[in-house]
Amino acid sequence: MSEIIKTQGVVLRKINHGDTSKIITIFTIDYGKVTVIAKGVKSPKSKMNARLETFNFVELVYYNKQSREVQLLSSVDILKVFNSLTEDLTRYKYASAVIELILTLLPDHEKHERLFKGVVRILDLLNKSDENAKIIFLRFFVFFINEIGYKIELDFCQECNKKLSESGGVFYSYVEGLMCDDCSSDHLISFEFNKELFNLLICLSNKNNLISFKENDLDFLITFFEKHLAYHISEFKGLKSLKLF
Ligand SMILES: [Zn+2]
């Protein structure tokens, strides 16, 4: 027996299957990541194909059977198309990185409503906001890391509990996390933050407005978060989307 499911989702990936069908991975609000087959969509008469582009926010109906991995898509309607994402290379790159995080690091069938809403919001911002796309992405990256359980403690030294804001420099070790000046000498340190860089990290995490920043520092933070995740999740090797161009 299969049940009919109607839900909303963001299209993550579309791949060809045989001569006429496509396999679509969708991040849904109610059922997490779901894979469906869209039959006959490669026919010129099919209206479904264009609705199933990556990044599209859609409402879908599918037949769900617990015993199978790929469900049968019945219909799909557009809720929102983020047009600018495919027209601007920078926006495209960071939107692809958002999708890649969900595709590679979120388990299938795990409902995560806050993260879902965060993805829709960030795609909308990348689509229309004039703010630097790298900053929009970094704010999402911090939110994502917190949501999947790998939050980095920013307030206190992980060794002595001293306030990190009162430390001259801040130091990161993969094992302990962030530490103050005094504690850093006893540990293997992989990343060092001067005051300016640490303040930038705090601003991004607290969603404060950024008054000034260096492009290099943003790149440093993206690398830092990638390495932090890669240490905790061995399958993760960094974001391929960000290396495309
Ligand atoms: Zn300390």
How does this model look, in words?
- This protein is an alpha+beta fold.
- The protein has 7 helices and 8 strands; from the N terminus they run βββαββαααββαβαα.
- The strands form 2 sheets. Strands 1-2-3-5-4 form a 5-stranded mixed barrel. The protein has a 3-stranded antiparallel sheet with strand order 7-6-8.
- α2 runs parallel beside α4 (133-147), α3 runs antiparallel to α4 and α4 packs parallel to α7.
- The longest helix is centred in the C-terminal third of the chain and has 18 residues, at 215-232.
- The chain starts with a strand and ends in a 13-residue tail after the last helix.
- Zinc ion binds next to α5.
* Largest sheet strand order: 1-2-3-5-4
Structural class: alpha+beta
Number of E-state strands = 8
Summed up, the helix count is 7
Which blocks of ≥5 consecutive residues have pLDDT under 50?
A: none
